[in-house]
Amino acid sequence: MTEGAPLPSLADSVGYIRSLGKPTAADVLARARASGRVAVQPRCGVGAHDAMRELLLELAAQGAPDLLTVTIDSHTRLGRFERALRLAHLSPRELNGYPLVAHGWQRGRELNEAVAAPLQIRHGSPDARLMFEVAVASGITSFEGGGISYNLPYSKDVPLADSLAAWDAVDRRCGELAELGVTVDRELFGTLTAVLVPPSVSLAVSVLEAHFAARAGVRCISVAYPQGGHLAQDVAALRAIPLLARRYLPSGTEVHAVLHEFMGVFPKERGNAEDLILYGALAARLGGASKLLTKTYQEAYGIPDAAANAAGIRLAQRANSPLLGFVAPDEEAAAEELDGILTEVAEIVEPVLERPDTRTAVVDAFADGRLDIPFSASRHARSEVIPRRDATGAIRYLSAGRLPLSARSLRRHGELLRAVPGAEPRIGSLLAELTADINYFPLLFGETVGKTSDKPEGGPRESRPSTPAGRTRTARDRGVGAASA
Question: Which of 97, 355, 415, 471 stands 20 to 30 A from 389 (CA)?
């Protein structure tokens, strides 16, 4: 399944990493935080080895990012290594990422040696043990994922107990590497299902994964949070990360906040997309993030080309300019959001952490809905959480499902949603309203979404009419069958 020589020993890999003479990902993150700037990283991954190397070189030359990405193909993510190897030989364009295991660690080293920036592996695998071994042998010092966050958003029927055990093996390997003097940055995918994820859901999952990682010996943890689109709420969520780390993780664990630029529906017009990219970069800086994962102006159309990717990097880097130091969030609103987020995360995770066997507690909690994520593809999450945007665009719980939120927390969300004209869910309206919330930014910019004859209500909630002209509020008009009411 892998080309080239057998994997080297861990000691050999450590010696190779030291011989590279380039900073590790943990070094880059630490320097970024110390200097008060946000490190910038694009996503990228193609199937052919030479094309992947050229892509990294082009992004390094045109965008000068602080870190670079090797995004892995879907077959490798799912352990279909033979199929990935066959396609890598016969038709690499059919792969939606770089098949690292198939190409092997020696070619991984070629990628690593081609660029000065450290590389990170991004994928979506519930069991990444072999991929991690190949990555380490390649000298790669940053690896994304976790037993919850790389299972429930991606896989239909992988038991949580299995993915948690597989990722525990990865984290313990990181602990071994740390003992040998190499710190691997373990980034946790708090982005989850990416769309309308309430901040406390994202951060609760990351707290639990960070708990497992730290206990296994991981020394550097990056907590990734998905930009929701509301500045005060996003800033507060990022500022919550170091506070949660101090509350729930052992001292001596380096923890970095990371912002993933908006992962939902992007505007189609280039200028609008670039406005959103800069907006996200500013949110990252104001929230104290150590790193930002960028987007491009081609986001609405699929996988970007290298030129657009490099342009996104350069634009995001502008947020570090001292000339933009006057930009500030509404601090009172951010403080209120921060208080709510910290309270809700505590209400969700502390009953789980109180159990003596945390891994079993996580499995049990997802089974009965005390842990949950919205819009999951997995049958091992209930997905009873229903989010909505409030009048200002902040993400709230329309329904918290069975999450153990207090009456006070639930009342806060209800009051914020009820402050919106037309926010009370109507029979048959929920799907249309959620679609409008998902299309928030295109509609905010006045772009047409979907059929031109079926303009959804959207953008800032306060601008939406409670009864749009020319429409009657029937389930059929909103594209929802009676059974969905």
Answer: 471
The pLDDT-based confidence of 418 (bands split at 50, 70, 90) is confident
CA distances from 122 to 43, 132, 218, 355, 475 (A): 8, 11, 18, 31, 41
Cα separation of the two ends of the chain: 49
Burial 393-413 (b: 16+ CB within 10 A, else e): bbbbbbbbbebbbeeebbebb
Cβ atoms within 10 Å of 274's Cβ, excluding its own: 17
* pLDDT in the model for residue 424: 60
Instruction: With cut-offs at 50, 70 and 90, classify the pLDDT of residue 151.
Output: very high
Which residues make Cβ contacts (< 8 Å) with residue 19, sequence separation at least 6? none
From the centroid of its chain, how far is CA 30? 20
Pairwise CA distance, residues 239 & 447, whole Å: 32
At residue 215, the pLDDT reads 97
Mean pLDDT of 390-394: 95
Catalytic, 144? Answer yes
Please report how many Cα atoms fall inside a 13 Å half-sphere around the Cα of residue 136, on the Cβ side: 28
Residue 116 has which token pair? Answer: 């000065």
pLDDT for 463 = 39
Residue 234 CA: distances (Å) to CA of 66, 225, 338, 374: 22, 8, 9, 18
Residue 444 backbone phi and psi in degrees, to 5: -60, -40
d(CA 72, CA 309): 17
**In the prediction, which pLDDT does 305 show?**
96
Q: Contact 195/375 with Cβ under 8 angstroms? A: yes
Please report the sign of the dihedral spanned by the C-alpha atoms of residue 69, residue 74, residue 80, residue 86: negative
How would you class 270 by CB atoms within 10 Å of its CB: exposed for 0-12, middle for 13-18, buried for 19 or more? middle
Tokens of residue 55, six digits: 């892509």
- Which of the 8 DSSP states describes residue 276? H
pTM for this one? 0.91
Strands 220-226 vs 119-122: parallel, antiparallel or unpaired? unpaired
Dihedral sign computed on CA atoms, order 84, 85, 91, 92: positive
> Which one is catalytic: 80, 107, 144, 457?
144
Separation CA 173–CA 179 (nearest Å):
10
- Whether 432 and 457 have beta carbons less than 8 Å apart is answered as yes
Residue 459 scores a pLDDT above 50: no
CA distance linking residue 132 with residue 283, whole number of Å: 31
Pairing of strands 185-188, 395-399: unpaired
Eight-state DSSP code of residue 261: -
Run of H or E including 211: helix 199-216
